[in-house]
Design goal:
The complex is a heterodimer of chains A (112) and B (110).
Chain A lengths: L3 E4 L2 E4 L5 E7 L5 E8 L3 E10 L2 E4 L6 E3 L9 E3 L8 E8 L7 E2 L3 E5 L1
Parallel strand pairs in A: 2-11
Antiparallel strand pairs in A: 1-3, 3-8, 4-5, 4-9, 5-6, 7-8, 9-10, 9-11
Chain B lengths: L3 E2 L3 E5 L4 E7 L6 E7 L5 E8 L4 E4 L2 E6 L4 E6 L8 E8 L5 E3 L3 E6 L1
Classes of the chains: A mainly beta (112), B mainly beta (110).
């Protein structure tokens, strides 16, 4: 199916574990983004990517790692999860900066 | 850098108009957007306005832009229960990055 998908949709993990959230888009959009959504903070950009093998930090990158070996995939890894990383994570993609961003359905991550 | 602010909640009666307000700080923002997030879902673009426009209308939606005051508003006419959602204002800054407001939760009273 065309669109942008995220997996898993829900994840519970423990402090100190490594977690990878997956994002896949079928439009061949150049740009992809990872946001976290927390009550009262709206959306905060974690990392973004302008193309395969090109990534850059956003507002809150600490504790996260990204890669983009293929245009369609943009995984986000929490190398050692902390409770403060409990959040809803959204992946988005767009043709170009300023164009409409298309969002995935989100991953709700709970770190115990 | 750019900062975008909006109030967190708005409560209106069904059938009334809703007006959601947003302020931004970067006068060089070229595009301003309204996104809608329904419960349990990602965000979807609702409408946008270019900085050289004062107003944009699309069916029940009216966007007003006051560049002097750096104030953006979204008016939803004849608000329905299906309009219950969180509405995000976003501004494209001079680095072509989207800066997001915290979102306004629209609550519809019967």
């Amino acid at each position: 199916d065309a669109g942008i998908t995220q997996s898993p949709r829900y994840k519970i993990t423990e402090t100190g574990r490594q977690v990878t959230l997956m994002c896949h888009q079928t439009w061949s959009h150049s740009y992809m983004f990872w946001y976290r959504q927390d009550l009262g903070h709206g959306l905060r950009l974690i990392y973004y990517s302008a193309a395969a093998d090109i990534t850059d930090k956003g507002e809150v990158p600490d504790g996260y790692v990204v890669s983009r070996s293929k245009t369609e995939n943009f995984p986000l890894t929490l190398e050692s999860a902390t409770r403060s990383q409990t959040s809803v994570y959204f992946c988005a993609s767009t043709l170009g900066m300023g164009n409409e961003q298309f969002f995935g359905p989100g991953t709700r991550l709970t770190v115990l | 850098g750019e900062d975008v602010e909006q109030s967190l909640f708005l409560s209106v009666r069904e059938g009334d108009s809703s007006v959601i307000n947003c302020t931004y700080t970067d006068s060089s923002s070229t595009y301003l957007y309204w996104y809608k997030q329904e419960p349990g879902a990602g965000l979807q673009l609702l409408t946008y306005i270019f900085s050289n426009m004062d107003m944009k209308q699309d069916q029940r939606l009216t966007v007003l832009l006051n560049k002097k005051d750096k104030h953006l508003s979204l008016r939803i006419a004849d608000t329905q229960t299906g309009d219950s959602a969180i509405y995000f204002c976003a501004a494209l800054d001079s680095n072509y990055q989207l800066i997001w407001g915290a979102g306004t939760k629209l609550i519809i009273k019967p």
